[in-house]
Design brief:
The chain is α/β, with parallel strands linked by helices. The protein has 8 helices and 12 strands. Helix 3 crosses helix 4 and helix 6 runs antiparallel to helix 7. The termini are far apart. It comes from Alteriqipengyuania abyssalis.
């Protein structure tokens, strides 16, 4: 009977292969089996060695190639057969990547797991858009939330957004209207600046800016599609022109 392999939960970062960690790149290049999400960039998958098996377990809103339980079972089955599957995820495997669930499923049956962190979608997209998620003049707190969870309207987001805070919303394109209404109902100003980053850190990235009250129209009118992040907070309004204007005011 073959020795049990190791399951590698690997973060693929926001898309650009140059943003992979060295450990992630080496595992991808040496893997016999790669089980990957739909958002992993084709250029990263192209790094796999000739003969490697690539299995897509892409997830889209309300449509999964494989249920999560089946993905867990696949990884465990392959590891017990002596293979060491690379489970490749966009961004970081432990930030809205279900890596915690997969690691728990493996450890529960005695399969060794190694987690290789990646640049998260929030960090990568914000950096590419030159939006500082924290800034001494604008934000000392950052929160990450999922915008398409069940019971969105019942969740307590009190205090997550507002003066001195930045809120980053994953998977919020389809629920942008509900998100804006929820935040305004909780007391956030309709004039709070927002940014939508589509295809962050990729060649086709778009950065759209507006105000919270106009977020639903911004998403709809611009035809925003996933992958996209919504960033809410004063940091999104720190464009070059605005920064220059503030500097002139301070100098007067």
């Amino acid at each position: 009977m073959a020795d049990t392999g190791t399951i590698y939960l690997v973060g693929a970062g926001p898309g650009d292969p140059d943003l992979l960690t060295l450990r992630a790149a080496r595992l991808i290049e040496g893997a016999d089996l790669i089980v990957h999400d739909g958002l992993v960039d084709p250029a990263i998958l192209a790094m796999a060695r000739e003969g490697a098996t690539l299995i897509s377990v892409a997830k889209r809103r309300s449509k999964h190639t494989l249920p999560q339980e089946d993905i867990n079972a696949l990884l465990v089955r392959e590891a017990k057969a002596g293979r060491s599957p690379v489970r490749l995820k966009g961004g970081d495997p432990l930030i809205f990547g279900r890596g915690g669930e997969e690691a728990e499923a493996a450890r529960a049956v005695g399969v060794h797991v190694e987690i290789v962190p990646g640049i998260s979608a929030a960090n990568g997209a914000a950096a590419a858009a030159q939006i500082a998620l924290t800034h001494r003049d604008a934000s000392s707190i950052v929160s990450f939330v999922a915008g398409q969870c069940k019971g969105l309207s019942d969740q307590n987001w009190s205090g997550l957004a507002g003066k001195g805070r930045t809120l980053v919303i994953y998977m919020g394109v389809k629920t942008a209207g509900d998100i804006a209404n929820k935040l305004m109902a909780d007391g956030l100003s309709p004039d709070m600046p927002v940014a939508v980053i589509e295809n962050g850190a990729r060649p086709n990235m778009r950065v759209l800016r507006g105000l919270l009250a106009g977020l639903p129209d911004l998403v709809e009118n611009e035809g925003v599609t996933s992958p996209a992040l919504i960033v809410i907070g004063e940091v999104t309004a720190r464009t070059d022109a605005q920064i220059a204007a503030r500097a002139m005011e301070a100098a007067q």
